Amino acid sequence: MTATSRPIRVLIAKPGLDGHDRGAKIVARALRDAGMEVIYTGLRQTPEMIAEAALQEDVDVVGLSILSGAHMTLVPQVLEALRARGLGDVPVIVGGIIPPQDVPKLLALGVYKVYGPGAPTRQIVADIEAVVRGSAQPEGSPA
User: Fold this and answer.
1) What strand order describes the sheet that includes 113-115?
2) Rounded to an integer, what distance in angstroms lies between the CA atom of residue 104 and that of residue 12?
3) How far apart are CA 134 and CA 128, in angstroms?
4) Range of the domain at 127
5) Residue 143 lies in a domain
6) Residue 68 lies in a domain
7) Model confidence pLDDT, tens digit, residues 100-140
8) In what helix (H) or strand (E) does residue 40 lie, and over which residues does it extend?
9) CATH of the domain at 43
10) pTM, 2 dp
11) What gap in Å lies between CA 133 and CA 103, rounded to an integer?
12) Do the domain assignments include residue 77?
Protein backbone atom coordinates (compact mmCIF):
# COMPACT_ATOMS: atom_id res chain seq x y z
CA MET A 1 0.00 0.00 0.00
CA THR A 2 2.77 2.40 0.79
CA ALA A 3 6.23 2.76 -0.59
CA THR A 4 8.88 1.64 1.88
CA SER A 5 10.87 4.78 1.05
CA ARG A 6 8.46 7.11 2.83
CA PRO A 7 6.72 7.21 6.19
CA ILE A 8 3.15 5.98 6.54
CA ARG A 9 0.76 8.87 5.89
CA VAL A 10 -2.36 9.06 8.04
CA LEU A 11 -5.20 11.55 7.73
CA ILE A 12 -6.96 12.25 11.05
CA ALA A 13 -10.35 13.91 10.62
CA LYS A 14 -13.24 15.10 12.76
CA PRO A 15 -16.41 14.72 10.68
CA GLY A 16 -19.63 16.44 11.57
CA LEU A 17 -20.38 19.03 14.18
CA ASP A 18 -18.45 17.48 17.07
CA GLY A 19 -16.20 20.14 18.55
CA HIS A 20 -14.07 17.93 20.82
CA ASP A 21 -10.69 17.00 19.40
CA ARG A 22 -8.49 16.12 22.35
CA GLY A 23 -8.53 12.38 21.54
CA ALA A 24 -7.78 13.02 17.87
CA LYS A 25 -4.81 15.17 18.83
CA ILE A 26 -3.51 12.54 21.24
CA VAL A 27 -3.69 9.87 18.54
CA ALA A 28 -2.08 12.20 16.00
CA ARG A 29 0.80 12.85 18.38
CA ALA A 30 1.30 9.13 19.03
CA LEU A 31 1.37 8.42 15.30
CA ARG A 32 3.92 11.21 14.73
CA ASP A 33 6.02 9.90 17.61
CA ALA A 34 5.97 6.50 15.87
CA GLY A 35 7.42 8.09 12.72
CA MET A 36 4.24 8.49 10.70
CA GLU A 37 3.26 11.61 8.79
CA VAL A 38 -0.05 12.89 10.12
CA ILE A 39 -2.38 15.28 8.37
CA TYR A 40 -4.98 16.65 10.80
CA THR A 41 -7.93 18.25 9.04
CA GLY A 42 -9.34 20.03 12.06
CA LEU A 43 -12.90 20.24 13.32
CA ARG A 44 -16.23 20.11 11.54
CA GLN A 45 -15.22 18.45 8.28
CA THR A 46 -17.73 17.17 5.76
CA PRO A 47 -17.30 13.66 4.35
CA GLU A 48 -16.43 15.25 0.99
CA MET A 49 -13.76 17.46 2.57
CA ILE A 50 -12.22 14.44 4.28
CA ALA A 51 -12.18 12.34 1.11
CA GLU A 52 -10.72 15.19 -0.92
CA ALA A 53 -7.98 15.73 1.66
CA ALA A 54 -7.21 12.00 1.61
CA LEU A 55 -6.88 12.15 -2.17
CA GLN A 56 -4.76 15.31 -2.22
CA GLU A 57 -2.47 14.11 0.57
CA ASP A 58 -2.04 10.57 -0.87
CA VAL A 59 -2.67 8.98 2.50
CA ASP A 60 -2.29 5.33 3.42
CA VAL A 61 -4.94 5.36 6.20
CA VAL A 62 -7.87 7.57 7.18
CA GLY A 63 -8.71 7.94 10.86
CA LEU A 64 -12.06 9.37 11.92
CA SER A 65 -12.75 10.65 15.42
CA ILE A 66 -16.44 10.88 16.26
CA LEU A 67 -17.84 11.69 19.68
CA SER A 68 -21.19 13.12 18.58
CA GLY A 69 -23.10 9.86 18.12
CA ALA A 70 -23.45 10.46 14.38
CA HIS A 71 -21.05 7.66 13.40
CA MET A 72 -23.71 5.54 11.67
CA THR A 73 -24.50 8.49 9.39
CA LEU A 74 -21.05 10.02 8.91
CA VAL A 75 -18.90 6.92 8.46
CA PRO A 76 -20.92 5.53 5.52
CA GLN A 77 -20.81 8.98 3.90
CA VAL A 78 -17.03 9.17 4.29
CA LEU A 79 -16.61 5.65 2.91
CA GLU A 80 -18.77 6.51 -0.09
CA ALA A 81 -16.89 9.77 -0.71
CA LEU A 82 -13.59 7.86 -0.60
CA ARG A 83 -14.90 5.25 -3.06
CA ALA A 84 -16.14 8.02 -5.37
CA ARG A 85 -12.55 9.30 -5.54
CA GLY A 86 -11.04 5.88 -6.20
CA LEU A 87 -9.87 5.48 -2.59
CA GLY A 88 -12.05 2.53 -1.63
CA ASP A 89 -8.96 0.50 -0.75
CA VAL A 90 -7.66 3.03 1.81
CA PRO A 91 -8.18 1.55 5.29
CA VAL A 92 -10.44 3.59 7.56
CA ILE A 93 -10.21 3.46 11.34
CA VAL A 94 -12.79 5.00 13.65
CA GLY A 95 -12.36 6.15 17.22
CA GLY A 96 -14.64 7.77 19.73
CA ILE A 97 -17.82 7.05 21.57
CA ILE A 98 -19.13 4.05 19.63
CA PRO A 99 -21.76 1.84 21.28
CA PRO A 100 -20.69 -1.83 21.24
CA GLN A 101 -23.69 -2.83 19.13
CA ASP A 102 -22.57 -0.46 16.36
CA VAL A 103 -19.02 -1.85 16.07
CA PRO A 104 -20.00 -4.91 13.95
CA LYS A 105 -22.11 -2.66 11.73
CA LEU A 106 -19.17 -0.33 11.08
CA LEU A 107 -16.89 -3.27 10.36
CA ALA A 108 -19.46 -4.70 7.94
CA LEU A 109 -19.47 -1.36 6.11
CA GLY A 110 -15.73 -1.71 5.55
CA VAL A 111 -14.14 0.05 8.53
CA TYR A 112 -10.82 -1.63 9.36
CA LYS A 113 -10.79 -1.08 13.15
CA VAL A 114 -12.89 0.69 15.79
CA TYR A 115 -11.35 2.13 18.97
CA GLY A 116 -13.15 3.31 22.06
CA PRO A 117 -12.09 5.72 24.77
CA GLY A 118 -8.83 4.73 26.41
CA ALA A 119 -7.64 2.56 23.52
CA PRO A 120 -3.86 2.18 23.83
CA THR A 121 -2.16 4.38 21.26
CA ARG A 122 0.54 1.72 20.80
CA GLN A 123 -2.21 -0.65 19.59
CA ILE A 124 -3.46 1.93 17.09
CA VAL A 125 0.12 2.41 15.84
CA ALA A 126 0.65 -1.36 15.55
CA ASP A 127 -2.66 -1.85 13.72
CA ILE A 128 -1.86 0.90 11.21
CA GLU A 129 1.63 -0.46 10.60
CA ALA A 130 0.19 -3.96 10.09
CA VAL A 131 -2.52 -2.92 7.64
CA VAL A 132 -0.14 -0.78 5.59
CA ARG A 133 2.38 -3.64 5.41
CA GLY A 134 -0.46 -5.93 4.36
CA SER A 135 0.00 -8.30 7.30
CA ALA A 136 -3.24 -7.51 9.11
CA GLN A 137 -6.74 -8.86 9.01
CA PRO A 138 -9.76 -6.60 9.52
CA GLU A 139 -11.30 -6.84 12.97
CA GLY A 140 -13.60 -9.80 13.21
CA SER A 141 -11.86 -11.68 10.35
CA PRO A 142 -10.63 -15.22 10.86
CA ALA A 143 -6.89 -15.25 11.56
Assistant:
1) 37-40, 9-13, 61-66, 92-96, 113-115
2) 22
3) 10
4) 9-133
5) no
6) yes
7) 999 999 999 999 999 999 999 999 999 999 999 987 665 65
8) strand 37-40
9) 3.40.50.280
10) 0.91
11) 24
12) yes
